[in-house]
Amino acid sequence: QVQLVESGGGLVQAGGSLRLSCAASGRTASVYRMGWFRRAPGKEREFVALSNWSGENTVYADSVKGRFTFSRDNTENTVYLQMNSLKPDDTAVYYCATNPSLTHRGWSGDSWGQGTQVTVSS
Questions:
Q1: Cα 80 vs. chain centroid, distance in angstroms?
Q2: What is the rounded radius of gyration, in angstroms, for the C-alpha atoms of the chain?
Q3: E strand intervals along the chain
Q4: What angle do CA 97, 78, 10 make, to 5 degrees?
Q5: Burial degree of 24 (CB within 10 A; 0-12, 13-18, 19+)
Q6: Which residues contact 80 (CB under 8 A, 6 or more apart)?
């Protein structure tokens, strides 16, 4: 298993920026893909970004494309989600996950963090 801890969330005004961190520990050798997801109030978990563990290939949800950027610090086993031009609709709890995959039942992953709250005020 891999343990994930998200951090960096907070309260920010619309148009502002935040950088989320996801620190991985444990059996990180098993990680080949990382994803960011979010759950807004009253909504199901939503895909945000998906990348190889190396961070070299990343896809983004249309709702965040051009505003969010995935990156990785190899020396720290930490991945980041840089969020710019934040909108109130970005308000959600953000989660990182290892080896996420899409099935007919939705997204699943080997490990999930506890999440970090992002609140964007207007």
A1: 8
A2: 13
A3: 2-7, 10-13, 18-26, 33-39, 46-52, 58-60, 68-73, 78-83, 92-98, 101-103, 106-108, 111-112, 116-121
A4: 75
A5: buried
A6: 19, 20, 21, 22, 70, 71, 72, 73
User: How many other CB atoms sit within 10 Å of the CB of residue 81?
Assistant: 27
| Integer Cα distance of 2 and 13 in angstroms | 33
Q: What percent of the chain has pLDDT over 70?
A: 100
**pLDDT, tens only, 59-108:** 999 999 999 999 988 777 899 999 999 999 999 999 999 999 988 988 89
CA angle 72, 100, 22 (to 5 degrees): 35
Contact 58, 81 (CB under 8 A): no
Residues 45 and 41: their CA atoms lie apart, in Å, by 10
